[in-house]
Amino acid sequence: MLSFFRRITKSKLGIPITLGILAVIALAFAAGDINNVRNGPTGTGSAVTVGNAAVGEADLRQRVRTAYDNIRQQNPTLTMEAFVAQGGFETIVDRVVNDLALQKFAEKIGMAASKRAVDGEIASIPAFQGFDGKFSQAAYDNLLKQQGLTDKGIREDIERGMLSRQLIAPTAGATQVPSQLALPYASLLLERRQGTVAYIPVSAMSTGAAPTDAELQTYYTRQRARYTIPERRVVRYALVKAADVAANAKPTAAEIAQAYNQNRARFAASEKRSLMQVVLADQAAANALAVKVKNGESIAAAARAAGLEASTVPAGDKAAITTATSATIANAVFGASQGAVLGPLRSPLGWHVVRVESVQPVPGKSLAEATPELTAELGKVKAQEALAAIHDKLDDAIGGNATFDEVVADGKLAAQATRPLTAAGVDPSTPTAQPDPVMQRLAQAAFAAEPGDSPQLVPTDADGSFAVVGIGNVVAAAPPPLAQIKEKVLRDFVIDRNLRAARALASAAVAKINGGTPLTAALQGTGVKLPPVQQLNATRAELARQGGQLPPPVALMFSMAAKRAKMLEAPNRGGYFIVYLDGIQSGNAANNPPLIASTRQGLGGVIGRELSEQFAGSVRKAVDVKRNDAVLSRLRSDLAGAAPAGN
Q: Which CATH architecture has domain 270-362?
């Protein structure tokens, strides 16, 4: 919970989110932090109980809703139905059970968190800090009062989290795996399997009679989720382009003249000088080398005779020469004539013998000659200042609760509106069109807010351009009318009908094969012309090298018993695979130390999580966990049919 608070309160949008979370401090979230659990039955019925503590149906509903809302901040198109279907509900229930079980177990063995430690955690939460970044008692009290929370409740939540972390930390941090434990897993990588894959594609099925209008309507009604278009929003926006601001931020002649007078030294006549030097550590050696050079020997030759190499400093003004050498050497060089030999001169690097190689006069610039340069410099500064002033003015208006229309009118901006867009910035009515990157950013901002929220200032370009963004009409997720997509629905109807036919053939063939009929004969019995069968022969190690790119039939072959057949639906409703596993050759890695070592390393990355899960499972058994399946089933079904947040 605490890491979650810290993360979201760092953003402007995070502040209202934090307030909402504090209002329902019992929540579940992806980081696996601790949920608030009240003692005793709550809500309309206890969903889960651990010892004498319980979480009611209403509380669990709020936990799932809060977790869903948090995830939806990152994935605005996610629906509650999809969240539940993807296992979100079960995940929250499991976390509630684990967190409450860990708390009760900690109490049972006498663990405790000190008041000072809890105070430190509270002080570190940004929502409770003042403008100086330190804990503010006034901010803490005001926030609790606003949300109807108590200091006792907050402290209990934090204490529960600290106890749970202390229990889990020893197992979660485990990384060492003994060789004997790794050996069976390493040997498993050497296991080899041979099998056969047959394919019954939907394209091999007869198309059959065209469906009636009633059949098509029934199919469409049952498959509404397949055709549902995600929630769309009309994005209202007004652009503030840096180029437009710059065009109106040209410096005046008086400003250019003032800048010229303030920088006369910069535009005055000057010189650039180049030099060659040798740096020696010993003053006596430097004196000897300087004498040779002053007597006519080249500085390069004198340096080579001393076992050194002369270096060249290219032509530059006094500041450049100072940077390349030192102030002492630069002063000497700019006080000497071309060809002069200077030194030895002392610097932090040693003793320098220097020869002035060239003196290049740099003519000064008149006001007229410097005007183009100053115009560009001053124009850039004025444009940045003007853009910042516009941004600050609009931001102040938004901070004063001005509406989108008021902000745009006050800033004399041109308001625009998009067609209804998804969170990805796509217009479903033109799915092949490439979304504009700027529109994508504006759509993301619009979906991160809720209808009725204040407008936002959203950057649109690296040059400082931005947009005022608000939300227009919100179109709830829904499928288009059947008449609009009748051809697609008809095509899907035929594919699904053929897929059922392919499944029936595959199921009958699998039954025959498992009854003793050879695979080839079973396929011939389908009466359908099928693609040639494919032979499979691979080890688990070969599959592991392919990462997650395994063909589904191959993955199935490595999870079934020998001399058996299984069927598997092909991707994209393409048909059905029949996989027959002919044989398994066990592996033995006992004489393969490198494989055992690499397996130990791989297991080391997951052993901590495995031990933590086993520890949590043991804790649940020790503290009397009870699940009310009737309540959980009813709540899951209810949530699965709920509309997305905001609807």
A: Roll (3.10)
